[in-house]
Amino acid sequence: MADAEVGNYPFTTIDANRGVAAVRTECPCDELEGLDGYCGNCRKGRRYVPVELIDVAGLVPDAHEGRGLGNQFLDELRRADVILHVVDASGGTDEEGEPVEVGEHDPREDVEFLEHELEMWIAGVLSDNLNGLVRQSKTPDFDLEESLAEVLTGVGASEADVRRALREVELPPVGDWDEEQTVALAREIRRLSKPVLVVANKVDVAPEEYVDALVEDGAVPASAESELALRRADEAGVVDYAPGDDTFEITGDVSDEQRAGLERIREVVEEYGGTGVQEGLDSAVYDFLNYFTAYPVENETRWTDGSGNVLPDAFLLREASTPRDLAYTIHSDIGDDYHHAVDGRKKQRISDDTELEEGDVIKIVTA
């Protein structure tokens, strides 16, 4: 629904498109009496929480060496927490992005080459800085984790990612690393810092064996064209549909041709449990990144802000986040002035080290 150029040819996307989408969760407002499951900030109990998306140009083989728009792509990628790799499950696009006959190209090759490019990109950064790491290793206060994290700042890997990767990959002293060991470390760092969720698009026209193979490997089956048609039809009042629904209802007057088109979409939605677009976003945020949704309020009894709006805000937090983390997510000043928090369900003060969970309603009290 965004104003971005789309087309079935290479390099339709040159400069990255930035926008906001949303992940879907259940709104807690159905626990409040008198609202009929609708608080004004959800759609019949479906709550949509904004997330930032960066739509980047597709990669081609040897992108890590600068081929195509590789350098530009990888520079954008360093800020990503998770990657949604949208592949043409129909096999109607080759590895260079050129249209071919449906079924002519095996989409699993696209999955393999993207991960390879990312890993070789990180391996290249490691190799370029290896001599410097060797020199540093000779100093008495050398810390490999800290030094590697500094080197990998440009690819968006954290010190925690580096620490976990070093636990998984057995390595000799840094001066003795060979190419294979460098790539092995790069592979693990990629897995931890840039998890990839494959979205198998065009399942409405894809050969069944291609879809099955991708799904078996963990891909989310999707039909973006079906999602777009349903979103437009809902906007026009022709259907009742919300992103992520596994069905829809035709509510307006439609021609025989339109009805036939919608029924074809219904077949896709019923076969795959939805169009897959919302599921891809949700899985990336809630499953791959282990985020959850929390709702800050000013009135812990009515779950409102100072103006009486019910559950006005929803924030995504990382697993194991505490009330103080929520306070800082709302605003740095609120975090700095944090005093304590109150559970909106139990109406009780909770400890500062309480790990919040999905759907928690929390009042933050400042000093």
Q: Would you kindly provide a written description of the structure presented here, covering whatever features stand out?
A:
- The chain has helices spanning 70-77, 108-128, 130-137, 144-151, 159-168, 179-193, 208-216, 224-235, 256-272, 277-288, 323-330, 332-336, and strands at residues 17-26, 46-55, 83-88, 196-201, 220-221, 239-240, 249-250, 291-297, 315-318, 338-343, 348-350, 360-366.
- It is of the alpha/beta class.
- It folds into three domains: 17-115 and 196-284, Rossmann fold (3-Layer(aba) Sandwich), CATH 3.40.50; 128-189, no CATH class; 291-366, Ubiquitin-like (UB roll) (Roll).
- A five-stranded mixed beta sheet has the order 9-8-12-10-11.
- Strand 10 and strand 11 (348-350) form a beta hairpin.
- The radius of gyration is 24 Å and the shape is flat.
- The mean pLDDT is 92.
